[in-house]
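Design a sequence for this backbone.
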């Protein structure tokens, strides 16, 4: 199937599943679509047992597009930008130290805690996974790809929880920034894996990390500032031109980031904050309009919803090739890994909150809400699929663990988050 045919199938599935969820399931959009997509995948697998040719055709269809490239290079920049322009930027700027500390410490702690824990588990003879040959760096790569939360899934649920503006902004901001930090850590560890630990110097790792973070932030800030000047110059008279400008700037950040090895996710988030819908609300009384007209924000909301629907259907369909390589021994270690991931997330956000609580006020059980709201999604699966083949058979285990964590966080945590918050 060519690109147009695949896009048509995905949009039809997204529309059909959205109607079923809206009328029958009545669940949050991301969760409902995920359940329906997984149900479709299970039906395909069952039919495939009876008719192997059918399963072969569907498997070839899922392999006909590169999920990791599709998400990281195409969908993620648009989704992150749409999230960044809708967050309360005034609250975020007031709390920027808190949000950055939560995002950076949480991701780094979770990466090493989960990576070390999984490495210890696979070394235990009871699981019979010693022969996979996974190294400590391989396990750290898994820790890095599973550490960042999915801002798309998080924001869609948090908006319906009636939290205070401060807490909502902290959750949304932390989720937006930990994506960029998580990708940077993953790429740094990936370079160590490819080059070999013995060929990597601390100076080289530090330079790579600094280039990714500082380059992404500076590029996003520069283009965000220029974009803000452009849309203010237009003064909301030509909304279609504002849409064109924002689309082109998001793509420009992605292309330049890829060319110069900057962090694209951090770049589009920074640019989105410059073009945020709340950037001028404190000056509306003086006759100054928002950075862009409401039409532009509605366009990005529509694009966000559409890509979000396609993303979670793709996540559901990716279960087919992953579960074809299923090994019974994977099940127990995946349950222990889920406990490890959630508890590491809890400790990773509780420590910064304990430290910051001496200087700032936090609502009761904020750390619990941020922990339980740490839903994983497409980024984790895309990074797992992006792992090099030199990992060997252990790649199948990492893919399976990633998928199980994503399923648990979206379905179980996502369904219970609102009730637990209340």
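Sequence:
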């Amino acid at each position: 199937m060519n690109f147009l045919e695949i896009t048509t199938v995905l949009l039809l599935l997204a529309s059909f599943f959205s109607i079923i969820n809206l009328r029958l399931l009545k669940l949050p959009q991301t969760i409902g679509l995920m359940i329906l997509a997984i149900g479709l995948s299970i039906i395909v697998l069952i039919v495939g047992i009876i008719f192997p040719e059918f399963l072969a055709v569907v498997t070839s269809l899922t392999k006909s597009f590169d999920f990791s490239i599709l998400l990281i290079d195409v969908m993620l920049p648009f989704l992150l930008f749409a999230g960044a322009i809708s967050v309360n930027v005034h609250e975020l700027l007031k709390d920027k130290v808190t949000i950055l500390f939560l995002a950076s410490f949480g991701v780094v702690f979770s990466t090493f805690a989960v990576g070390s824990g999984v490495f210890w588990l696979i070394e235990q003879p009871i699981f019979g996974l010693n022969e996979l040959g996974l190294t400590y760096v391989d396990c750290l790569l898994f820790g890095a790809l599973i550490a960042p939360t999915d801002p798309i899934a998080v924001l869609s649920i948090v908006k319906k929880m009636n939290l205070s503006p401060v807490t909502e902004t902290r959750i949304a901001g932390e989720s937006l920034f930990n994506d960029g930090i998580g990708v940077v850590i993953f790429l740094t560890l990936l370079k160590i894996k490819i080059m070999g630990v013995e060929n990597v110097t601390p100076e080289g790792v530090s330079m790579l990390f600094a280039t990714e973070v500082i380059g992404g932030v500076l590029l996003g800030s520069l283009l965000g500032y220029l974009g803000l000047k452009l849309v203010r110059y237009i003064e909301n008279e030509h909304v279609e031109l504002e849409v064109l400008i924002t689309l082109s700037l998001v793509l420009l950040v992605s292309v330049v980031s890829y060319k110069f090895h900057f962090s694209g996710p951090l770049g589009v988030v920074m640019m989105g904050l410059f073009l945020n819908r709340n950037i001028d609300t404190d000056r509306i009384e003086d006759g100054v309009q928002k950075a862009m007209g409401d039409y532009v924000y509605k366009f990005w909301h529509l694009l966000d919803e559409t890509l979000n629907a396609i993303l979670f259907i793709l996540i559901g369909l990716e279960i087919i090739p992953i579960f074809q390589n299923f090994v019974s021994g994977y099940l127990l270690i995946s349950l222990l890994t889920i406990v490890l991931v959630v508890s590491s997330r809890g400790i990773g956000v509780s420590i910064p909150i304990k430290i910051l609580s001496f200087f700032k006020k936090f609502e009761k059980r904020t750390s619990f809400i941020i922990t339980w709201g740490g839903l994983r999604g497409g980024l984790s699966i895309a990074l797992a699929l992006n792992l090099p083949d030199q990992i060997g058979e252990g790649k199948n285990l990492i893919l399976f663990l990633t998928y199980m964590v994503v399923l648990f966080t979206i379905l179980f945590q996502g369904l219970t988050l609102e009730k637990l918050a209340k």
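The CA atoms of residues 2 and 64 lie 9 Å apart.
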